[in-house]
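Render this sequence as a predicted structure.
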Amino acid sequence: MLLSATPPPGARPAQEVRLYEEAARHRGLTPPRTHPLASITWLGPAASNPALAYRVGGDPAHLAESLRWIEAAVRLPHWGRAHMPDHDLDAGWLLHHLALTYRWIGDDLPDGVRALLRYKLLLQGRRMYEFAVASEGRWWSSSYWQNHNWICYAGLATAGYVLGKEEWTGRAKDNLGTVLDLMPQDGSHAEGVVYWRYGVPFLAAHLDLLKEAEGVDWWDRGGFMSRTFRYRLHQTAPGFAFNVDHGDCHDRRSGHSAGLYYRLAAQYAIPEAQWMGDLASGELLWPEAAESGVRPGILPEAYLEYLWYDPSVPAVRPTGTRAFFPDLGLLAARTGWDDDATLVSFKASPGGGHRAWETAGKHRAEKGWDTLNQGHHHPDSGSFVFVSQGAFLAVDEGYSNRKRAAHHNLLLVDGQGYADEDRYHVYRDIPFERQARQRDVLVSDDCGWAHATAEIAAMYDPGLGVRRLDRTLVFTPAGRLVLLDLAEADAAREWTFLLQTDRPTEPQEDGSRLIRSGAATARFRQLAPGDARVAGEVTEVEANPTSSTPELRLTRTLHTLRSTTTRSVEGLFLTTIAPGPEADASRVPCTEGQGVTFGTETVLLSPVARRIRAEGVLADAAAVLLTEGGTPYVVAATRLELDGKVLLDVAEPYTGKAG
């Protein structure tokens, strides 16, 4: 597709209009004569989109436009200025786009320009290749789970196939095979949604190039590519415009890639991906282009939308509301997809996810290589994001340079977050055993409930003596949250519960607090402990999201609610967050376990002892989940008796519908 500029058969009028519009978008700009301090990644698609438009429609104005940007790019002595000139993203982007441009319209360029472009591609490709060889085992050359690796090798491969440099394509191919073998099979990505949409399109492009140039089909190798749309889908906020911002996310509006959606839809016959592609290239296109903090952004992907769109794939609106991604320990649940629906996203895993953490540990031990670059990963295991009524109500920090647990919806021990935090590479060189994980997961579209327990004690300084810090999160069919935090330490500690919001929470007469964001509201209530010290404060988070543009700064203001216990060996927080202004949560009296009721929905929990004793309920289970008039659900249960009737009695723990 890419090399031959040949899309799947069929009409594509919308994609053709997009291509022509993008081909003309820069006509009023003057190409730079010297290298700007900022990133020049955009110069590549500024040349390739009009080149493809000329190839498709034959308008000489598009050829002239491509020529302007080719000449600007080739006269720069280096690609990239502020950070790693010739050896990083700027060079990777330009190699990819200008090599395609050379392939598509090289014969129509003036002889001198064609020769200069070929020379420049050879020069920059050699620089990139030599750096990749020299830096093997360090930085992007062997950072298999990182967008720099995918982009730089895809750029090298594109230039290699166009210029016939088998040494380049061979190395890039070997790396691609390793990446596909090592990426999580559940399709998740620890760098977050923004870097998913920035980096994964280059994996898809590389796969296209490999199949077209060598006849090698690796689209199903490893399983990541076939499942990664599902990950992206379930990190979409209700209404589809915004994204959940776990990991480094410049903003909540930089998550869509219409071209990649189309390619995944075509390759794997995913009608929901086709629908998302139409939405992203239609009504969401210009709002995302205007509000996204990531450059070059979504508009330059017009060439991919045109070449990757397959009109034979039907488009179907997504309906599934529950998902769990075990490698990243990521649970996502929602009440629906409409603007006013409610969503929670809850994660806990080792840095980079289980597979990356374990494999990188082997690389370090066996080869002395540092293959897991963790700059975009956060100390956020056990944290959650909560969205309802079209607004973010419990929020993540987004992008940060000095990453801290205190910037997330997490817990502090004696005021301290995770060990070795407050730095950019927050997981670098920490002990292999310092891992978080999820257990006791219940997630099913059929039942409406979602449940998981995050184990995060290992993430804290061993000197604090934290023996247990387990957070259980329950999402009810009506979209309410119940959180149970159980903590134990060798000595008495202060335990602090953190809630991050975009606006200060408002105390209410009944002891609850109102979370407000625009017209959206939720009621926050802490049912235990009864004597916690509660205070609000402003937390400022600052980041420079790209070393190629040193002057760029992102700032985000969080409003942090702190609830701190008296010093104790054991700590317990029982918390609810209910969408809307109603304060309808109350505690269920339990002789064993903890319980919350919202009237029509009741949550009974005992994640450690797994014994629940309440009026009408006898259970040996981690959780019993009840709806008025509905079927009960259990988590890790061996026995359930309701109102004297035994509904479950089994030898091995069972999770699911009971009775």
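Summary. The chain has 14 helices and 26 strands. The mean pLDDT is 96.
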